[in-house]
Amino acid sequence: YKALVLHLYLSKEPSFYWCIGPNCRSEQYHADSNPIFWCDKYEFRSCVEHKVLWHTNLTCAEFDAKVDLHRRETEEEASRKKIKETSKRYPGKDYS
Q1: Exposure check for the chain: N or C terminus, fewer CB within 10 A?
Q2: What share of the chain is helix, strand, coil (3-state, %, to 5)?
Q3: Is the pTM of this model over 0.70?
């Protein structure tokens, strides 16, 4: 019970982060502006801003742009698929 209460308390602290590595329960205060979280236990890197594995060779802004682009492409593909499934060609119209 004490461990759960401590975990809850620390999770509310803005500068406190838990490692997101597999099977890792390491934690640390991360008060500087560098978004890289280094897990000393497993030498694991993650991004404290995005809470994902560290996006190697990309800044956080570049990562955001890549995620936004992927989301837009996925949404556009879903729209094209839905239009193809639900619309009909106008009779007599040449679409070539």
Answers
A1: C
A2: 40, 15, 45
A3: no
